[in-house]
Amino acid sequence: MDIPKSHPRYESLLKREKIVEALDKGILAKPGLIAHGRGETFDYLIGEKTTDIALESIKAASALLVLAGNPVISVNGNTVALAKEEVVELAKELNGKIEVNLFYRTKEREEKIKKEFEKEIENGEIKLLGVDDANKQIPNLDSLRGNVSEEGIYTADVVLVPLEDGDRTEALVKMGKKVISIDLNPLSRTARKSTITIVDELTRCLPLLIKYVREYKNKSRDELENILNNYNNKENLKRMLNYIGDRLKSLEID
Amino acid sequence: MDIPKSHPRYESLLKREKIVEALDKGILAKPGLIAHGRGETFDYLIGEKTTDIALESIKAASALLVLAGNPVISVNGNTVALAKEEVVELAKELNGKIEVNLFYRTKEREEKIKKEFEKEIENGEIKLLGVDDANKQIPNLDSLRGNVSEEGIYTADVVLVPLEDGDRTEALVKMGKKVISIDLNPLSRTARKSTITIVDELTRCLPLLIKYVREYKNKSRDELENILNNYNNKENLKRMLNYIGDRLKSLEID
């Protein structure tokens, strides 16, 4: 389908096309389409823009990523479908580590996702983990979903999980890791269990994360720790619920 | 996947499975999965139960259906996937007319949907329109999406459209028809343009529609008109927005 750029829902329709394409390419499992729809509604309710509330969590997440000794970005089918370039860009600002971590894990999908990163792996820009080396196990998760790379998530101190499920988020936190999630649903278990939750759309917040990570590299450890100490995730989520609630109540039915 | 009945999200997961199955069977187009996800979020926000606000619109819709001279139930892939039995049950209480009306119309999908109703067509319980007889055109819509049956939507006075798109709803209203929509998004164009909008989940509100249609057949025309006159759709939608807004603001982040 050809979507004219002038269409009021151009961005949203374009993302929808990317998601359908990813299903056709075998990168995405079918329930990934339903998950995308759930996110669409939340984005619509927050007004399809990055709120000041989300910006605060983006800044805290950036500080945490810069302070991290061994950060890893976890990716699934939806993330690769929507934001592969941005994920690579962010990884390059960190240690280059990206780990494939699928809810519906099949060898075929893993390989297809790996292929998407072929150029960047060859260039040495990133290190793609979790496909050929997922031989460690997250405790308290069934084997397929708990398989992780020793060099990646298993030994990471900070894990960035865009679009993650609640079980895995909780299991990672229980392992003592700091988890940054990107989740449009402020009520999800992922959102509630994460160390820092960014309630924003993936392709909109990743460029901001990249920008602040770059900027914060020039800050002292004290300054960064100060940003983190002033951040309260539960309060941030509560403010987001209030924001959406107030917004809904103020909308007119024409 | 085997979902245990005790799972807190059993109903929701079961519907998700039905939707994926319908894609596999060729009844549903891929964007239908994304649309299902959008609905899931709204249902989650209204608390996954029929609100008193929705019950009012169900009652008004039931009155309108009983008063109708030539009502038609329009069905698409999502509706057939989730609620075929309920749609048949409701049609049997009316004049039996069900019309297939697809956003992404292909002959193949039409035929597959028709096949789902094979038994009921043979029994004479329902009349399935819009597949072999979609030779009339709704004004102001492109040809594929505007194709309708003369005996069905084209001459209907009341059209029930579960999960319809905004363009078509608006075009039907412009033709002078009364449109009852079932739409979990109180902000959608469908919701705003319909004569009566039921903001509720399909499989939850159809049994209620059936119940009230049965009951209202015993009411006088005056009583039914009174129910309709006391119903205000814009006000109902506004109350729904307030309800969701208040609910979000009252939720605790644990």
TrEMBL record, chains A, B:
Pfam family, one: PPS_PS
Keywords: ATP-binding, Coenzyme A biosynthesis, Ligase, Nucleotide-binding
Binding site for ATP: 16, 38, 183-185, 189-190
Enzyme class: ligase
Catalytic activity field: (R)-4-phosphopantoate + beta-alanine + ATP = (R)-4'-phosphopantothenate + AMP + diphosphate + H(+)
This protein's pathway: Cofactor biosynthesis; coenzyme A biosynthesis
GO terms, molecular function: acid-amino acid ligase activity; ATP binding
GO biological process, one term: coenzyme A biosynthetic process
EC code(s) of this entry: 6.3.2.36
Assigned protein family: Belongs to the archaeal phosphopantothenate synthetase family.
Assembly mode: Homodimer.
Function: Catalyzes the condensation of (R)-4-phosphopantoate and beta-alanine to 4'-phosphopantothenate in the CoA biosynthesis pathway.
Name of the protein this chain belongs to: 4-phosphopantoate--beta-alanine ligase
Annotated source species: Methanotorris formicicus Mc-S-70
